[in-house]
Amino acid sequence: MRYFLELEYFGKAYHGWQRQPNALSVQEVIEQSLGTLLQQKTEIIGAGRTDSGVHARQIFAHFDAEAELDEAFIFRMNSLLPKDISAKGLYKVTPEAHARFDAISRSYEYHIVTRKDVFSVDTAYHIHNELDLEKMKKAAEVLFGYTNFKCFSRSRTDVFTYNCTIKRAEWEQQKDRLIFHISADRFLRNMVRAIVGTLLQIGQGKMEVEEMHRIIKSEDRSNAGASVPAQGLYLTRIIYPNSIFI
Which residues contact 230 (CB under 8 A, 6 or more apart)? Predict the structure, then answer.
């Protein structure tokens, strides 16, 4: 039987989602707990590969189990997981369902705090320069006119295409906090952090809104802004077709 496991995690202690030979990853910790519960080595496939320090409010991973698992499984799983990883739900899916390839939409948030806030040191990017939010909003709207986002992708990557369909890209202000919301059918490695870094360049007056067009058309990562720090980024939602759930 194949299952989707719904999870959330605070990413500070981990070198990203994907298992690595010499660093602690979220995948490794979850696989260890699953192996203990199921009494056999169990591999999981995640919906995405978040970078070191990035958080997830919702992410799914699939795994196969011979036994029928019930609602008590989540309670037992959480008793084994560390305090910064939580299992939120367990779903039966079709045998061929895939947590990564079957996702039809992913959403991220990037959090920026515009004052010194000791309670958000590890959960947001602190920036104290004055920002022109209206220009940042206009620049974000430029993204809807394109599908090739190679300019925002990590240079060394194994993707077959740089095309993504962006469905949402907007800024929200909550007092001293700015939140960038972005949703797409897929994302490239480092894409959201590079987009936010570029938008901040525009908000700080170092770039004009119209330059977003030139940057995207160039397909050159060196033309875009520097990537913002990982601690402000959250994977917030993943959507799948109903047909894969049993």
Answer: 11, 51, 52, 53, 54, 193
Strands 55-64 and 233-239: parallel
pLDDT > 70: what percent of the chain?
Answer: 100
| Residue 147 three-state SS | coil
Q: Answer whether residue 157 shows pLDDT above 80.
A: no
Give the domain extent around 51: 2-101
Answer yes or no: 132 catalytic: no
pLDDT in tens, 35-55: 999 999 999 999 998 999 999
- Considering 54, 69, 101, which residue would you say is the last residue of a domain? 101
User: Where does a domain end: 55, 81, 101?
Assistant: 101
Predicted structure pTM score: 0.95
- DSSP assigned state of 242: G
Whole-angstrom Cα distance, residue 192 to residue 169?
A: 10
Q: How many domains does the chain have?
A: 2
